[in-house]
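Progress report, Aim 2. The chain analyzed during this reporting quarter is listed below.
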Amino acid sequence: MPDSSTHFSLQDINALPQRYRANFINSLSGFKSSSLLGTTDGRFNNLAIISSVVHVGANPPLLGIIMRPHTVQRDSLSNIKQQGVFTLNHVHTSWTDKAHQTSARYDNGVSEFEEVGLTPWFSDTFSAPYVKESAVKMGLKVEQHFTLCNQTEMIIGEIQEVFITKRSNAPSAALENTNPKNAIAEDGYVDIESLQTSCISGLDTYHSTHKIAQYAYAKPNEPLTKTSITKK
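Predicted C-alpha coordinates for the chain:
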Protein backbone atom coordinates (compact mmCIF):
# COMPACT_ATOMS: atom_id res chain seq x y z
CA MET A 1 0.00 0.00 0.00
CA PRO A 2 1.51 3.40 -0.93
CA ASP A 3 2.36 5.82 1.85
CA SER A 4 -0.34 8.48 2.14
CA SER A 5 1.93 10.94 3.96
CA THR A 6 2.97 14.29 2.48
CA HIS A 7 6.60 14.42 1.42
CA PHE A 8 8.82 17.51 1.68
CA SER A 9 12.30 17.49 0.17
CA LEU A 10 14.94 19.94 1.38
CA GLN A 11 14.33 21.88 -1.81
CA ASP A 12 10.62 22.02 -0.98
CA ILE A 13 11.35 23.21 2.55
CA ASN A 14 13.72 25.93 1.37
CA ALA A 15 11.08 27.16 -1.08
CA LEU A 16 8.41 27.63 1.59
CA PRO A 17 7.46 31.20 2.59
CA GLN A 18 9.53 32.39 5.55
CA ARG A 19 6.83 32.42 8.26
CA TYR A 20 5.25 29.18 7.00
CA ARG A 21 8.68 27.51 7.05
CA ALA A 22 9.41 28.78 10.57
CA ASN A 23 6.10 27.43 11.90
CA PHE A 24 6.50 24.15 10.03
CA ILE A 25 10.04 23.37 11.19
CA ASN A 26 9.43 24.53 14.77
CA SER A 27 6.46 22.17 15.01
CA LEU A 28 8.44 19.10 13.92
CA SER A 29 10.44 18.75 17.13
CA GLY A 30 7.24 18.05 19.06
CA PHE A 31 6.29 19.26 22.52
CA LYS A 32 8.93 21.35 24.27
CA SER A 33 9.28 22.82 27.73
CA SER A 34 8.01 26.35 28.27
CA SER A 35 10.40 28.37 30.40
CA LEU A 36 10.86 32.01 31.25
CA LEU A 37 14.48 33.14 31.07
CA GLY A 38 15.26 35.70 33.76
CA THR A 39 18.26 38.02 33.41
CA THR A 40 19.46 41.43 34.53
CA ASP A 41 22.06 43.98 33.50
CA GLY A 42 22.23 45.23 37.08
CA ARG A 43 19.62 47.93 36.47
CA PHE A 44 16.76 46.41 34.50
CA ASN A 45 15.29 42.93 34.91
CA ASN A 46 14.43 41.12 31.69
CA LEU A 47 12.21 38.15 30.98
CA ALA A 48 11.89 36.06 27.80
CA ILE A 49 9.89 32.99 26.88
CA ILE A 50 12.02 30.15 25.49
CA SER A 51 11.34 26.56 24.44
CA SER A 52 14.90 25.43 23.83
CA VAL A 53 15.93 24.12 27.28
CA VAL A 54 17.76 20.78 27.02
CA HIS A 55 19.19 18.43 29.63
CA VAL A 56 23.00 18.24 29.27
CA GLY A 57 24.03 16.28 32.37
CA ALA A 58 23.13 15.45 35.97
CA ASN A 59 26.62 15.37 37.53
CA PRO A 60 27.45 18.21 37.37
CA PRO A 61 23.85 19.44 36.90
CA LEU A 62 23.83 21.13 33.48
CA LEU A 63 21.11 22.55 31.25
CA GLY A 64 21.52 24.14 27.84
CA ILE A 65 19.55 26.83 26.01
CA ILE A 66 19.68 27.95 22.38
CA MET A 67 19.57 31.67 21.63
CA ARG A 68 18.89 33.16 18.21
CA PRO A 69 21.70 35.02 16.37
CA HIS A 70 22.60 38.38 17.82
CA THR A 71 21.73 40.22 14.58
CA VAL A 72 19.41 42.55 16.50
CA GLN A 73 19.44 43.75 20.10
CA ARG A 74 18.76 40.78 22.38
CA ASP A 75 18.77 41.95 25.98
CA SER A 76 18.64 38.49 27.54
CA LEU A 77 21.68 37.24 25.65
CA SER A 78 23.60 40.44 26.37
CA ASN A 79 22.75 40.18 30.07
CA ILE A 80 23.90 36.54 30.21
CA LYS A 81 27.22 37.43 28.56
CA GLN A 82 27.68 40.39 30.90
CA GLN A 83 26.58 38.83 34.19
CA GLY A 84 27.29 35.13 33.66
CA VAL A 85 24.09 34.02 35.41
CA PHE A 86 20.43 33.48 34.51
CA THR A 87 17.28 31.82 35.80
CA LEU A 88 14.83 29.36 34.25
CA ASN A 89 11.26 29.42 35.50
CA HIS A 90 8.45 26.99 34.65
CA VAL A 91 5.35 28.51 33.05
CA HIS A 92 2.07 27.64 34.78
CA THR A 93 -0.94 26.76 32.64
CA SER A 94 -2.96 29.65 34.15
CA TRP A 95 -0.65 32.41 32.87
CA THR A 96 0.66 31.28 29.50
CA ASP A 97 -0.67 34.56 28.06
CA LYS A 98 1.64 36.58 30.28
CA ALA A 99 4.57 34.33 29.47
CA HIS A 100 3.99 34.56 25.73
CA GLN A 101 3.68 38.34 25.85
CA THR A 102 7.36 38.51 26.89
CA SER A 103 8.21 37.58 23.27
CA ALA A 104 7.15 41.09 22.19
CA ARG A 105 10.03 43.36 21.18
CA TYR A 106 10.06 45.88 23.98
CA ASP A 107 12.53 48.77 23.90
CA ASN A 108 15.87 48.47 25.61
CA GLY A 109 15.50 49.36 29.29
CA VAL A 110 11.89 48.18 29.50
CA SER A 111 11.29 45.32 31.94
CA GLU A 112 9.06 42.55 30.63
CA PHE A 113 8.22 41.72 34.25
CA GLU A 114 6.40 45.03 34.59
CA GLU A 115 4.87 44.96 31.12
CA VAL A 116 3.23 41.53 31.46
CA GLY A 117 2.38 41.60 35.18
CA LEU A 118 4.80 39.03 36.60
CA THR A 119 6.90 39.58 39.71
CA PRO A 120 10.72 39.56 39.91
CA TRP A 121 12.03 37.77 42.98
CA PHE A 122 15.63 37.39 44.17
CA SER A 123 17.12 34.76 46.43
CA ASP A 124 19.70 35.74 49.05
CA THR A 125 22.50 34.07 47.09
CA PHE A 126 21.75 34.75 43.41
CA SER A 127 21.78 37.98 41.41
CA ALA A 128 19.51 37.07 38.47
CA PRO A 129 15.74 37.52 38.89
CA TYR A 130 13.33 34.62 39.32
CA VAL A 131 9.63 34.68 38.47
CA LYS A 132 7.86 34.71 41.83
CA GLU A 133 4.73 33.10 40.37
CA SER A 134 6.64 30.09 38.98
CA ALA A 135 6.33 26.78 40.84
CA VAL A 136 9.80 25.62 39.71
CA LYS A 137 12.69 28.08 39.67
CA MET A 138 16.32 27.35 38.78
CA GLY A 139 19.38 29.57 39.04
CA LEU A 140 22.26 28.80 36.67
CA LYS A 141 25.84 29.97 36.15
CA VAL A 142 27.30 29.95 32.63
CA GLU A 143 29.75 27.09 32.16
CA GLN A 144 30.17 27.13 28.38
CA HIS A 145 29.08 29.36 25.54
CA PHE A 146 29.62 28.72 21.86
CA THR A 147 28.23 29.51 18.41
CA LEU A 148 26.57 26.76 16.36
CA CYS A 149 26.68 26.15 12.61
CA ASN A 150 23.66 28.40 11.91
CA GLN A 151 25.04 31.23 14.08
CA THR A 152 22.64 30.52 16.93
CA GLU A 153 24.37 30.56 20.31
CA MET A 154 24.26 27.77 22.87
CA ILE A 155 24.58 28.60 26.55
CA ILE A 156 25.29 25.74 28.95
CA GLY A 157 24.63 26.58 32.57
CA GLU A 158 25.34 24.74 35.79
CA ILE A 159 22.40 24.69 38.20
CA GLN A 160 23.32 26.58 41.38
CA GLU A 161 20.01 26.36 43.20
CA VAL A 162 16.44 25.11 42.71
CA PHE A 163 13.20 26.28 44.31
CA ILE A 164 10.01 24.21 44.17
CA THR A 165 7.42 26.38 45.84
CA LYS A 166 4.54 25.22 48.01
CA ARG A 167 2.18 27.46 46.11
CA SER A 168 2.36 30.29 43.60
CA ASN A 169 0.80 33.72 43.49
CA ALA A 170 -0.64 32.90 40.08
CA PRO A 171 -4.42 33.47 39.85
CA SER A 172 -5.46 29.84 40.08
CA ALA A 173 -7.22 28.07 42.93
CA ALA A 174 -5.66 24.83 41.71
CA LEU A 175 -2.29 26.04 42.97
CA GLU A 176 -3.49 25.53 46.53
CA ASN A 177 -2.47 21.90 46.06
CA THR A 178 0.95 22.42 44.46
CA ASN A 179 2.90 21.19 47.45
CA PRO A 180 6.54 20.16 46.74
CA LYS A 181 6.19 17.16 49.07
CA ASN A 182 3.57 15.88 46.66
CA ALA A 183 5.57 16.79 43.57
CA ILE A 184 8.90 15.12 44.41
CA ALA A 185 8.96 11.33 44.47
CA GLU A 186 11.20 9.28 46.75
CA ASP A 187 13.49 8.54 43.79
CA GLY A 188 13.88 12.28 43.04
CA TYR A 189 11.47 12.47 40.13
CA VAL A 190 9.74 15.86 39.99
CA ASP A 191 6.13 15.45 38.92
CA ILE A 192 5.84 18.72 37.00
CA GLU A 193 2.38 17.76 35.77
CA SER A 194 1.08 18.04 39.33
CA LEU A 195 2.61 21.53 39.42
CA GLN A 196 0.63 22.36 36.24
CA THR A 197 3.66 23.24 34.15
CA SER A 198 2.75 23.99 30.54
CA CYS A 199 4.59 22.98 27.38
CA ILE A 200 4.89 24.45 23.87
CA SER A 201 4.49 23.16 20.34
CA GLY A 202 5.63 25.26 17.41
CA LEU A 203 6.25 28.91 18.18
CA ASP A 204 3.06 30.00 19.86
CA THR A 205 0.88 27.09 21.03
CA TYR A 206 0.70 26.12 24.71
CA HIS A 207 -0.52 22.85 26.22
CA SER A 208 -1.28 21.24 29.54
CA THR A 209 -0.11 17.63 29.94
CA HIS A 210 -1.52 14.25 30.83
CA LYS A 211 0.74 11.40 31.93
CA ILE A 212 0.32 8.19 29.90
CA ALA A 213 2.72 5.89 31.77
CA GLN A 214 5.86 5.71 33.87
CA TYR A 215 8.20 2.74 33.48
CA ALA A 216 10.83 1.05 35.61
CA TYR A 217 14.47 1.14 34.50
CA ALA A 218 14.70 -0.82 31.25
CA LYS A 219 17.07 -3.82 31.03
CA PRO A 220 17.78 -6.22 28.15
CA ASN A 221 15.78 -9.45 28.13
CA GLU A 222 13.54 -8.38 31.01
CA PRO A 223 9.86 -7.43 30.67
CA LEU A 224 9.17 -3.74 30.88
CA THR A 225 7.06 -2.84 33.90
CA LYS A 226 5.08 0.24 34.71
CA THR A 227 5.69 2.06 37.98
CA SER A 228 3.70 4.56 39.99
CA ILE A 229 5.07 7.79 41.36
CA THR A 230 5.72 7.45 45.08
CA LYS A 231 5.07 10.78 46.76
CA LYS A 232 6.82 11.98 49.86
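The chain is about 20% helix and 30% strand. The radius of gyration is 19 Å. These observations will guide the mutagenesis work planned for the next reporting period.
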